[in-house]
Design brief:
Elements (H helix, E strand, L loop, with lengths): L1 H17 L7 H6 L24 E9 L7 E2 L3 E4 L4 E8 L11 E3 L4 H11 L12 E4 L8 E7 L5 E6 L10 E6 L1
């Protein structure tokens, strides 16, 4: 009886040993580059942009106020260099629950258009429309919460916009991202 059980225990090991994958081409194995071998274009698959040598700029932006009359960002202008890797720390200093905020960077002069479209998107879309006018956006920050946003600044110098797209906040919470 013991012999039967030992054969049953060996069966999965034997099946696993018989099912070994074919040997990989040594050039792709050594470099560990994924390829698409099902088509003519079997070039290495592109990965995320390498930001190692990009200039890094760290910024902090604060949302202030506890009523619609008081709300504002602590500054109306942020400055970055073209193509810089931006790490933004967004601090919501509000204490009352209706004071939920975000920051959305837009193409020049498009903050109002983006904010109005955000109302249509609603909470399920984080109040950020899927629009070519949106450059980058933070998650919503609850009162007392800090969130971070990383993005690459536009390459073209100019005056871009930023705005809180939570409904009705855009009237008072907007500013300029100067790329210079």
């Amino acid at each position: 009886m013991r012999k039967k059980y030992s054969y049953l225990l060996l069966l999965p090991v034997m099946l696993l040993a018989c099912n070994q994958p074919e040997a990989e081409d040594s050039s792709t194995k050594e470099m560990n580059i994924p390829t698409d071998s099902s088509s003519v274009a079997s070039a290495p698959i592109a990965s995320e942009t390498d930001t190692t040598l990009q200039k890094k700029q760290e910024l902090t932006l604060r949302a202030l106020g506890n009523t619609l009359d008081e709300i504002r960002y602590d500054t109306d202008t942020l400055e970055v260099e073209p193509g810089a890797f931006v790490k933004l720390t967004f601090v919501n200093e509000g204490t009352d629950m209706p004071m939920v905020h975000n920051v959305v960077f837009t193409e020049p002069g498009k903050y109002k258009q983006v904010a109005l479209a955000a109302e249509e998107v609603g909470a399920s879309g984080n109040y950020v429309p899927n629009s070519p006018a949106v450059i980058a956006s933070s998650p919503m920050a609850l009162p007392g919460q800090t969130v971070e946003l990383e993005f690459t600044a536009p390459l073209k110098k100019g005056y871009y916009s930023f705005v809180c797209t939570y409904p009705d906040h855009w009237h008072k919470m907007h500013g300029v991202l100067e790329v210079k």
